[in-house]
Each structure stands twice: as structure tokens, then as C-alpha cells.
Design goal:
11 strands, elongated
Length: about 525
Amino acid sequence: MPLLFIPGRRGLFALVCIAVLIEGAAAALAAFSTRQLFGDLHAGGGLAPFFFWSLPAAGILIALTRIWVRAMGEKLGQSFVRDARIAFFEHHANMSLGTLQDIPHGYLSLRFVGDMSALGRWIGKGLPQLLGVVVLVPTALAMMLVIDPYSGAIILPLVLTATAVIVLSGVRLQGIHADIRQKRAAIASRMSERLENAAHLRVAGRLRKERRSLYRSSVRLIRVAVRRAWRVEILRVLPEMTAGIGATILFGLGASRNTDPATIAGGIAALAIAVGPLRRLASIMDMMSAYKVARLKLKKALNRPTIAQAQQGDIKLNGPISVAAKAVKLGPVQDLDFFLPAGHWGTLQGANGSGKSLLLSVIAGLEDPEQGEIHLSGQPLRMVSRGTLRRQIALISPDCTILRGSLRRVLCLYLLDRPSDSKLQRAVYNAGLSLLVERCGGLDGKIKEGARSLSNGERVRISIAQAILANPGLILVENVWPLLDRNGQEKLLAWLKRTGATVLSVGSPGALTVPSEAERLAVTCFKS
């Protein structure tokens, strides 16, 4: 988790604290001015100009400081959330592909949106309001003791009791928030999967079953949410009850002791100042509970293991790259040893689930072997620089990364510098993407979110075009041959031969099936 009080945010927090102290001083001035002005009216003389003008000045100052505190608090909260988002994204970017695929998308969305919102609300709004409670309530109680010690001593336990009840009851909100988030996450995870396949579920006749399941899950969530609402609202009305009881006590004691009306008015003004922050205390405890739950969830997410390649060395490689595996173990891959010389072609063979795609992911830096090492041109993979991996290794796969945006942006995803249109057009032609470019309306045509408008074959061709533009020294070809027509296979094969790069491929044209007896992963190497 990022630190809250880094240099820039420490200054913002200091400004918030100063503003809250100014608000407290203005509230004290308002209470004293109220008492003095009532005294002047009771005496029948003129109103003292200083206290007369101090009252509206104090009100204006309180209003301005609250606006300032809210704005600076929001800036503080959003700054922290910005750093938390970046930390969350970078951590997940350094996780293995398999670990990422094990996390439901609904949970990731809830962490990235819901939990970040809870963090921002507490730091941006709840924390400044809590500072206001810490400053204003003691200030108001001190004013009551100064104005009328006897009445103040009686009101003090009443206000402190209400404060204690709100705080202690508010602490128990954390369990309710955890329950709400668990149920909300379960719905988000389930619906993330169901919505993506809603049309297929309709055809499968599962709509009624899914609707019942969603209804039951929502009812359980509603029950917990209503329980939270009851508790928060009960806590919010406590200050109102405290104000009514306190005012009654002040009037009753004043009448029985013949207290000066000005003193009673000053005490009521001080009581109002104390009750104001207490009205916000229930919401503050609610925000604090949500923050604590969100922070625990995010810390757990940020503690998930990352791959060793997340801390790369600085070794750079150029030209065709040799690949060597030494006692590699990963899932179904057991004690794999092979050597693929630079500029040669290697074919991966094995039954479904034998680990062919997994091995390619390890070489591409997307996974970590459980045991053993991968060496590129004699250098440990973990010591090769990130830039070299990006420039010198291309993975051609039907699961290639395609972000929403223009086709030009999709093709240049792995490039630091945008190539010329002529270079892009050559890559488009060699990858067999001309029809897609025409259908999109050119290189600046838009690709829909999740590449839903593309066929599997077009996804593969985009992956090929990305590899052509990268001009790598090592090309990893996942099982894409069956997804390409004969023309597409011939184009890919011709380009692979022209590059002179090292190629490690799952299957090849003319060998699209794997013999059933090939139960374990095997690598066959030959000169391309």
C-alpha cells in the first residue's frame, strides 16, 4: 500500500489541520459573542460593535474553512487513491499469467473501483471531519465550562456518553461492511461471467435459474445493507437527542438558579457547536469501517506473489536467440531439458494439457517455472532486460493482447515508436489483414472492447502483424495453425523463414494434430 503522509500530502494534511483549528477558534468566538450580545440586550444598552460584527465574521470564517477543508481533503484523498491505483495495477502487471487468470474479473473490478472509492471517501472526507470532531467538540465543551461551570459539568457527561456510544457502536460496523463487500463481490464475480455469456445462457434455457440465483443473492445483500442503514441512522439521531436533552437541562437549571439569560444563550450556542460535529460522527465511523475493510482487501491483493522476472537485470540480446531449458518444472511440465540453437526451428509436441502453451508463456516472461531455469543465448531469463524481452521475443497467439482503440494503436502495442504508414501497410499485407483494414475503414478504424468484432483468425493475424513490426530474434508460435486458412499458413511460414529468427512453435502446417501416444511434452529441433 502507498504511504499516506509522503512530502506532498503532508503539506495538504497540515493545511487541513490549520483550517480545522481556525474553525474551532471561530466557533469559540461565536459562542462568546452570542453570550455578550444577549447580555447587552438584557442590560438594555447598546450592542458592543466588536461582538456584533464578530458573530457574522465567525460564521463566514467557519463556512470558508469548511469549504477549504473539503477541497483540500478531497485533493488529499484523490492523491492517495491515484497512488493506490498505480500500485494495484503495477503489482498485477508483475504477476504471472496463471495467477491473474485465477482471479475472477468481478473481484478485480470491485478492488479497483469499490475499494478505491472507500479509500478516497475516508481520506478525503472522513479524516478531515474526524479532525473537526477532535477539535470542535472539546472546544465547545470547554466554552460551556467557562460560560457556566455548573451547567457545563452536567452537560459534559451527556455529550461524552453520546460520543462514546457512537464510537463504540461505529466500530462494529466494520463486520457489517465486510459482509456487504463479500456478498457484493460474489454477485460481481458471478455476473461478470454471466453477462459476458448472457446470449448463450438464454439459448441454453438457463435464464430462469440464473434469475432466481441473482434474486436470492440480491436479497441477502439487501438484508445486510438495511442492517447497516439502521445502525448508522440510529447513531445519527443520537446527537439530536443529546441536543434536545442538553438544551432542556440548560433551561431548567437556568430557571431554577436564576441564571443570566445571556449565560444560558451562550451555553446553548456552545452545545450547538458540540452537537454539529457529533451529527457527522456516525458517517465518519461508517466511512472509517469501509476504509478498514477496503484496506485489508487491497493489502491482501498486493501480497499476491509476483513472478521473478518482475525484477529484471540489464542484459541485452540481439539477433537470433538460442533457447535452453534446464530441469524446468511447471505444472504438467516435469524436468524438461532441451536446447534450441539460434536460427533454428523447434516444434513442441504433446497431448492436450501437457504444458505446451505454458512453456511458451514461461519463455515470454509471463510465467515463472517452479523449478529449473530458462536461458536465452546463454543468459538466465530473469537477468534479461525488460526492453530486450519486449523487442526480441514475439508471441504469436490467438489470445494476444488487443486493447480497444484504433487498429493502428493495436498493431503498435509493443513498439515505443510509431512506424510509418508504409511499414504498417506492409505488415498488414504480410499478415493477411487487408480485408480487416478495409472493413474497419483504414488503420484508424476502431476495434471494439475485448476485440469482440474479430474472429479468432483475425486475432491471430493481428498477433502476426505485431510480430512482423517488432522484428524479433525469437518467435514463439502458439497453436495458431488450425485457425489460419491455407493462404494464411503459407504467408506465416514464408515470413518465419525470411526472418532468420529462432522459432519455437506448437505444431506446424501439415502437422496440425498430435499423435495420441505423445503424452508428455517434447521438443523437436531442426534447421529452418
